[in-house]
Amino acid sequence: MFKGSIVAIVTPFNNGAVDEQKLRELVDFQIENGTDAIVACGTTGESSTLDNVEHLDVIRIVFEQAKGRVPVIAGTGSNSTAEAIHLTREAKEVGVAGVLLVTPYYNKPTQEGLYRHYTAIADAVEIPQILYNVPGRTGVNLLPETVARLAPHRNIVAIKEATGSLQQASEVIALCGGQIDVFSGDDFITFPMMACGAVGVISVLANIMPKTVGDLTDAFFAGDMAKARQLHLDTLKIGNAMFIESNPIPVKTALGLMGKCSDEVRLPLCEMGAGNKAKLAAILKEYKLI
């Protein structure tokens, strides 16, 4: 259903408020540079510090600006099952092509709890749903066996696998038997994950290098393994730089240095430290982004 380079787009702010104009410009920048789909209000979009009105406003803005040129996927996950159902219903009303559902954070549910959480959402809302496993941020790991239990549900179409583990990603692909698609959730292993059967990436790096990330996935699908491998190796350094501080601090700082939007983030995140900012600027110059 979805494939290729999907950007987890940032939410630009201006003096504490969502910067609608810059968000619209970022959507155009992505589409003009070959991004295959856009995730609005993912964790890179600082969904955890958007209130419900802002959350749905950002989804609407991205959907409106995309104008049907690429699919828009809304981040509607929550550590409350009832809230996730509510947000998913609201996003469906906007008209998005699908939703991205991060595992519940802080609660630390059991695997049975995770199964029931995702089943409840999938039963409640008829829309394509992408599971999102990122234990480094949530404190809970959606295990391959649980993904396999969820995969037969008609509304669960994919998983964003962001453990950073090729082993776990491979186990998900092996167990699910083609019932759902798998996306890399980490730019630094997109190529090897696609070699194992993933269908693309939900990317942080694509915020600043949409054409390059898109070229990597396009080359892979075209069978040009040499080009895809080289782009993988060429982007390792800058991909790693996107995580020298907590995401999305580095990517927003990079966008600020590139003049695309403010580097402003919301507390409890704060601006990048001076030393790391200097390192990031040097890498951006190396890649001719500034």
Quick recap of the structure?
The chain has 290 residues and is of the alpha/beta class. The chain has 13 helices and ten strands.
List keywords for this structure.
290 residues; 10 strands; TIM Barrel; globular; 8-stranded parallel β-sheet
Question: Can you give a write-up of this model?
Answer:
The relative contact order is 0.14. With 290 residues, this protein is an alpha/beta fold. The chain has an 8-stranded parallel sheet. The model has no long low-confidence stretch (mean pLDDT 97). The protein contains 13 helices and 10 strands.
Q: Can you tell me the residue ranges where pLDDT is under 50 for at least 5 consecutive residues?
A: none
State the CATH superfamily name. Answer: Aldolase class I
User: Looking at the structure, what is the overall shape?
Assistant: globular
**Beginning-to-end CA distance, first to last residue:** 35 Å
- The H/E string reads EEEHEHEHEHEHHEHEHEHHHHH
Question: Per CATH, which architecture?
Answer: Alpha-Beta Barrel
Counted up, domains total 1
Number of strands: 10
Give me the side-by-side strand order of the main sheet: 9-8-7-6-5-4-1-10
Structural class: alpha/beta
Task: State the name of the first-level CATH class.
Answer: Alpha Beta
The overall pLDDT, averaged over residues, is 97
Sheet having the most strands: 8 strands, parallel
Tell me the strand percentage band.
Answer: 5-15%
User: Percent helix among the residues?
Assistant: 40-55%
Instruction: Indicate the radius of gyration in whole angstroms.
Output: 18 Å
What is the overall number of helices? 13
Q: If you consult CATH, what is the topology?
A: TIM Barrel
